[in-house]
Amino acid sequence: MNGSKPHFVDKRYVYDWYSAYRLDPDPLEPLVLTQQLTHRSRDIWNGSVNMILNTRRCDGKFWDLVKKYLIHPRVLEMIELSGLYGVYRSNRPSIDRSLITSLVERWRPETHTFHFRTGEETITLQNVEVLYVLPVNGNPVLGDESIRTIGDWKNICQRLLGFISRPQNFNCSSLKVTALNADMLEQLQLPNLTTQEIIDQMFIWEPYSDDLIESLPDYCRIERDIWRVRAPIFCWDIVEVHLPDRVMRQFGLKQTIPTPFLFDATHFHHDRKGRRNTNWNMEHAQRLPLWNQRLQYVCDAPVNREPL
């Protein structure tokens, strides 16, 4: 102390300083991120979650067949006509569970975006078309969830597959899809093609340059006019809202304050269980006009010339 008097700190000052600068995982403004109390990030902050998430996938057996058998040209033609050829050519994607866990911790269902320190990012229609060559324009994937009889399934098999499956494959009003493998394996041939380079570049969080877009085949950018459309996307019971106005930097444009999005907290509780005989066109009748008039909801902004 060199002969000087001890220095006593005012406890009130220490408390005030701690209150002003203490760390808090909650959003500064709760009007947008309204689900923080139940979000995974809060559990991590409290030390109650430290495990890597398990993943579930339903395409494993399909890719095993792709690797083992060559595909018949007529089947390949049907895949191309369905618009799924890009998915087929991409091959089996590798699953990085640690990466997925990190992304889940950053995902906010209130805005349908990942919240990173650098800003918000999300998977856009542009990503879907450029990476998987999937069609992103057209009618919603909806239909009538009607109950089919065994006779209906036999007619469908004959019309689509060219044969009627064995009687034991039918169960009341359903058809055992996995049992069809035994009926089709002798004719199903798929090539062993690997394009892992495409998968490795799926999570590049920078906008595609104009030069890159122009260098792509036409089928990778044919629907570029709707890449920035702000509208709901449908697949039977699932309704996801495409919100490009929150991630304009992914398109090389300036990011401004996005339009508020009305989040439905019960959104992820909906499924098709017990919903037989449901006409999903009628079920989504209020939201369908937003997609049908999608060209009126294309988001735009000035070109961003600042470094990202």
Brief summary of the model shown:
The protein starts with 10 loop residues before the first helix and ends in a 16-residue tail after the last helix. It has two domains: about 10-50, no CATH class; about 50-295, no CATH class.
Explain the overall architecture.
Residues 83-185, 199-301 form the Aminotransferase-like plant mobile domain. 31% of the residues lie in helices and 9% in strands. It is α+β, with helices and mostly antiparallel strands and 308 residues long. It folds into 2 domains: 10-50, no CATH class; 51-297, no CATH class. Strands 1-2-3 form a 3-stranded antiparallel beta sheet. Residues 1-21 and 186-203 have low confidence and may be disordered.
Question: What brief labels describe this structure?
Answer:
9 strands; 308 residues; two-stranded antiparallel ribbon
